[in-house]
Amino acid sequence: MEKKSSIPPANRQEEGLKPPPLMRRTHLQHDTYLSCWCPHCGVGLNEGDRAVFEITNNEGEVGVSRVAAYLNVLEQESTLHVDDDEELADVRCPHCRVSLIEPGQLCREDGCKLVGIEVSISNSKRLRLISCIRRSCRWYTMSEEDNERLILRDSHEW
Q: Measured between alpha carbons, how far is 125 from 21 in angstroms, rounded to an integer?
């Protein structure tokens, strides 16, 4: 059985404690469907139950990657062979072809480049989700403001 902290969430960082994982702080299920958009052109990236991206490997080959559009579901297929630990050279929007790489930012887990897209649930406000480019890495983040919007159970934005 998981032990709950008696320290209020707002004071956990002051006490040097890690906040509970996002999924334990929200009412969202781990397999919640996410609508995904390009932050540059605003066009939807979803095709059925997948978000679609144009990818470039380190040899300069261009292909298509289809990633499960569900929160914390890491199923992925690609027209290029991509090893789980391979860092892609680029990830682009398939519509406007603008890179989705976050300039000057690196993953805290493995030092790889990060990709930024906009996501929402149903017709809610779009939030910025930034995740590691490496297929085997599960690290992602969002701004404190977007994180607070996400965890507010009574929020009308979600």
A: 22
Report the pLDDT averaged over residues 113-132.
87
| Region 47-62 average pLDDT | 94
SS3 state at 9: helix
Average the pLDDT over 48-55 and give the result. 95
Q: Which band of pLDDT confidence, cut at 50, 70 and 90, is reported for residue 92?
A: very high
Q: Is residue 15 part of a domain?
A: no
The total of structural domains in the chain comes to 1
pLDDT of residue 106: 94
Containing domain of residue 79, as a range? 29-134
- Adjacent-strand bridge partners of 68: 50
What one-character DSSP code corresponds to residue 12?
Answer: H
Q: Residue 105 is encoded by which pair of tokens?
A: 């930012």
145: in domain: no
Whether 23 and 72 have beta carbons less than 8 Å apart is answered as yes
Q: At a CB cut-off of 8 Å and minimum separation 6, what does 48 contact?
A: none
